[in-house]
Amino acid sequence: MSVATHETPVTAGATPRPKKKRGPDRRPGLSRSLPYLLLAPAVLLELLIHIIPMLVGIWMSFVKLTKFFIANWSAAPWAGFDNYKVAVDINNAVGEGLLKSFGVTIIFSAVTLALSWALGMAAAVALQPAFKGRSIVRTLFLVPYALPAYAGILTWNFMLQRDTGAVNHVLVDNLGLTSDRPFWLIGGNALISLITVAVWKLWTFAFLTLMAGLQSIPNDVYEAASVDGAGLVRQWRHITLPSLRPVNLVLVLVLFLWTFSDFNTPYVLFGTAQPPAGDLITFHIYNASFLTWNFGSGAAMSVLLLIFLMIVTGAYLLVTGRRSRRA
Amino acid sequence: MRLRSLVAAVAVSALGISLAACGGSDSGDSSGGGGGGDATLTYWASNQGTSLDNDKQVLTPVLEKFTQETGVKVNLEVIGWNDLQTRIQTAITSGQAPDVVNIGNTWAASLQATDAFLPFDGDAMTAIGGKDKFVPTALATGGKEGTDPTSVPLYGLAYGLYYNKAMFQQAGLQPPKTWEEMVAAAKKLTNPAKNQWGMALAAGSYTENVHFAFINAAQNKSEWFNAEGKPTFTSDGNVQGVLRYLDLMQKDKVANPSNAQYDNGTKAVNDFATKKVAMVINQNNANSSIVANGMKPGEYGVVPFPAPAGGEQVASHVAGINLSIFKTTKNKDAALKFVKYMTDAPTQTTLGKPFASLPVLKDAKPAFTSDAAEAATFSDIYNTKSKPLPLVPAEDQYESTVGKAMNSMFAKIATGGTVTADEVKAALKTAEDQVAASS
Q: Which terminus in chain A has less CB density within 10 A, N or C?
């Protein structure tokens, strides 16, 4: 709404101007087209970088683009919905693999999202009151976010090695929690490792966003609340949380989209030896396309993923939008 | 108003520039090379030495000599194994390809199917010196049987069983001639309490794993594809072959469970070179890593990777690197000259030592080791005990699906689970379905 009210005076102001100055006919035309001309580079690049590849991807999902046709992909035969049929047929190996990967990804996203948000919120609230060294701690918390993802995840890979890793050194050698050295990058523990690394990478973003949001809540509200006898938990529930609602709406959505389509973390953490427990969907699709050279099938899976994310995002915006209007 | 039109003009011209840039980069990148005149070839080499830089150092004088002889310049790019296949895929898809490229010879039939490579037919084969100069089994890896190959052998490699001579002597053991002897020796040399193991396996590397699935199945006289090129992964010989290899960790317990995380062969070789394990099965280019880790050439011996008693004497697949020419090359003649030069005897001898490769030429002597016995053993394995991996277009999918299935099974064993023959069969069935679905 605020956008609309802003725009009205601008257009109102702009309209009388050509009337006053009766210049050549060309001018009003140019001034009307100017915004579009200014927008054009952005629109064109958007088309070039996002829309066209997406359309190509959709086209690919309908053709049989295997290794026999990648040298001359315009000759790839039309496959109709065959690629999709294979991808959703859970009775065959490909569909079953996709479904399992989808399940792993849902668990991964939900847990990573929840932990990142909770940690980010806790840290943001804890660092709200001023104390000595606060800015140092804040800076320190931002390190994982500032570190290049590749370097950070690779370090985790070293730390999670069974025989030489720091994690087992602490758990087994120093603390003696187990006598048997657990594997962290293969088997069932792989998902725990993956979530840990993803949370480590992501929670600081939640922290940063929530911290920024907290700055806009006036201190008087908290003071008034504490005068009325509200404890810290109550203050958090009834002041902090509702005030951060707009921030949270965006944050949760962004975190979800990021974690659900996370590729770097499993790719760098597991390399070519990815365990089934860490088989996230974008990585799965990458393998389906590049290792088996079946780009049509990979594209079909990508389109399914796109549709799923669009539905989730749409539903989320619809539900939260309705609620905020009611509120 | 003047300002506005100025801004508009700037915007429009900026747009024009950005579009021109898009068009420009397209034509600018296609380094097809000169187009006539003094030709320049682009050559993508694979990583054969101890590092990408090492490869560059080894190859540069060899390429300079070629330029002197022919006047053809060569732009060299060395590409690591993790990227090479993707780079080739991208080159095929985009048409922006180098002129000549190294490929893993097991990809030959798969890459041939893309129709992006120049077949070495009668004329082209003559131009590079004729097919008779090559070891026949090596040349057989160049493409599907009964077709003109789209790649020719460049460096030959073969698996051998490396053993630590001192450890064997102390335990009073002879180098194994059968699988059973190998397992018995490995058991005797295994002592988990002292972190001492009989063998090291690259059990987390799908490419290594699939090679052993293949070799062990071949020892059982079993095939992975039938005559029509359809996968037959679940045959009993394949299941038992895979299980036999898995059992080194599972039943015989002669390999450290940590090996399930070894995602490349070098890690296993390093364990051998640092004397933590008594045996390792690796290709003959292990030598450089072994020596780099402090083991002297006389301290280890090599025997063929043994088959079980009564099994087929297959000790290796025909491993190695092949050379291909992209069809899109604008310098076909220069590219053919280059392939001839790289596969001729003098170049083969020059590169044989630094890259620890076996000669792909008939009657050539291996130059990769000064140990005559080792050289003879590897030559014997390569020439008489090697079988090419399936020469079918789906070979790449066979590697990734079966190899990854073995990764998972090793992971299960390492984390305390057991893998039965039925489970191996089920895993191979899944792999077979995946291959069938995308071929």
A: N
Q: How confident is the model at residue A26 (pLDDT cuts 50, 70, 90)?
A: low
CB pair distance less than 8 Å for B15 and A41: yes
Asked whether residue A7 carries a pLDDT value surpassing 80, the answer given is no
pLDDT of B30 above 50: no
Name the minimum distance, in Å, from the CA of A78 to any CA of chain B.
Answer: 15
> Between chain A and chain B, how many beta carbons pairs sit less than 8 Å apart?
136
Q: Given this model, what pLDDT does residue B286 score?
A: 85
Q: Which two tokens stand for residue B18?
A: 């950005």
Q: Is B202 helix (H, G, I), strand (E, B) or coil?
A: coil
Confidence of residue B437 (pLDDT cuts 50, 70, 90): confident
Contact B110, A290 (CB under 8 A): no
In chain B, residues with a C-beta closer than 8 Å to the C-beta of A169 are none
Structure tokens at B131: 């097919």
The interface residues of chain B toward chain A in range 254-273, judged by CB-CB distance below 8 A, are 257-258, 260-261, 263
- The enclosing H or E element of B100 equals strand B100-104
pLDDT at B2 (0 to 100): 47
E strands in B129-191 = 152-157, 159-164
User: CA torsion sign, B104 to B105 to B110 to B113?
Assistant: positive
Residue written as tokens 């780009």? A295
Per-residue pLDDT of B130-174, as tens digits, reads 999 998 889 999 999 889 999 999 999 999 999 999 999 999 999
B11, B110, B205 member nearest A37 (Cβ): B11
Tell me, rounded to whole angstroms, the distance of Cα B288 from its chain centroid: 16
Phi, psi angles (nearest 5°) of residue B41: -100, 145
B interface test, pick of A291, A295, A301 with most B CB neighbours within 10 Å: A291
Could you tell me which chain A residue has the CA closest to the CA of B326? Answer: A71
The reply to whether residue B11 touches residue A44, judged by beta carbons under 8 angstroms, is no
Q: Do B408 and A275 touch (CB under 8 A)?
A: yes
- The pLDDT tens digits for B101-114 are 999 999 999 999 99
Q: Name every chain A residue with its beta carbon within 8 A of the beta carbon of B92.
A: 70-71
pLDDT at B160: 96
How much helix, strand and coil, in percent to the nearest 5, is found in chain B? 50, 15, 35
Is the pLDDT at B10 greater than 90, yes or no? no
Tokens at residue A45, please? Answer: 């690049």
Highest mean pLDDT among B37-51, B74-88, B409-423: B409-423
Contact status of B89 with chain A (Cβ, < 8 Å): yes
The answer to whether the Cβ–Cβ distance between A186 and B204 falls below 8 Å is: yes
Nearest to B4 among A31, A48, A73 (CB): A31
Cβ-defined contact of B434 to A97 (cutoff 8 Å): yes
Answer whether B224's CB lies under 8 Å from B214's CB.
yes
The answer on pLDDT for B220 being more than 70 is: yes
**A21, A34, A186 ranked by CB distance to B411: nearest:** A186
Contacts of B437 in chain A (CB under 8 A): 86, 92-94, 297
CA distances from A204 to A46, A151, A209 (A): 29, 17, 8
pTM: 0.83
Q: Establish if B87 touches chain A: CB-CB under 8 angstroms.
A: no
Tell me: the pLDDT tens digits for B63-100?
Answer: 999 999 999 999 999 998 878 988 998 899 888 999 99
CA–CA separation, A251 and A280 (whole Å): 21
